[in-house]
Amino acid sequence: MLRRLQEREIKGPGGTPLHFINSMYATGAFVARLRQSDLLDSHEGCVNALSWSSNGQRLVSGSDDTQICIWNASDYSLACKIATGHRANIFSAKFMPHSGDATVVCCAGDAEIRVFDVHYSQSRAVDERARLRHVFRCHSDRAKRIVTEDNPSCFLSCSEDGTVRHFDLRQPHSCSEERCPAALLDFSPYDIDLNGLSRNTHHPDYLAVCGTNPYIYLHDRRMIRDAVTGCVRRFMPGSSDGRRGHVTAVKFGEASGREVGGRR
């Protein structure tokens, strides 16, 4: 670790910022120094979703108890607790970027996506400080992941109904089979339920999708075609036992966007 720090400072071999970041990720010496700094205890069920705000000042969590908690990173205090109204486990929760942490999106096993406007104050956190802004019912099965874009209005979702959908909070929307916009990607003709979705922050048109087969599908939104045969690339993550199981999560690397990882 010290050698890498020195090379970064003197611009020695491998001293570029990108090389330094890539070489330091998950190194044994770095991971061994990690320590628990606190325990955040407010949920009454398994916590399935965690996400930092873009400035790192707040953390949002979602749970099987169908509640969302928003925490202050400075002192680990509870800033707000929201009874979402979901009827099943929350699987994903995100702050909308450039919203001042005032807009939170979550999705759950009831197939719904809910958007809340949150007001923060110095008083004790209460549910009444969060206002339900939108309920989207475009998905027909469990909604698994929310992926935000680099603006306060647009986000993507994926579901076990096999679809990836795009939402824009600026557009009027009334959910029904006839009125919901067409899915951005539809894997349902191939009987693939979706588990994971990731957007490349360095190349925003690139999406990685995974589900109930062994592959990660890479798509370019500038040339969307068939969900399976129209992908730009597909990858099959390895497994320790050599079996070809489902891929449960996918993520683009944050440092350069050149890597994509999947988990079985």
Short summary of the structure?
With 264 residues, the protein is mainly beta. It has helices spanning 2-10, 17-24, 28-32, and strands at 47-52, 58-63, 67-72, 78-83, 90-95, 103-108, 113-118, 130-136, 143-148, 154-159, 163-168, 185-186, 194-199, 206-211, 216-220, 233-235, 249-252, 260-263.
Fraction of residues in β-strands: 35-45%
How many beta-strand runs? 18
Order of helices and strands: HHHEEEEEEEEEEEEEEEEEE
Low-confidence stretches: none
Major sheet: size, sense and barrel closure?
Answer: 4 strands, antiparallel
Through-space gap between termini: 30 Å
Radius of gyration: 20 Å
The helix content is under 10%
Q: What is the count of helical runs?
A: 3
Q: Helices and strands: which structural class?
A: mainly beta
Multimer state = single chain
Mean pLDDT: 88
Gross morphology is: globular
Strand order of the largest sheet: 1-2-3-4
Pfam family, one: WD40
Keywords: Repeat, WD repeat
GO cellular component, one term: Cul4-RING E3 ubiquitin ligase complex
Protein name: WD40-repeat-containing domain protein
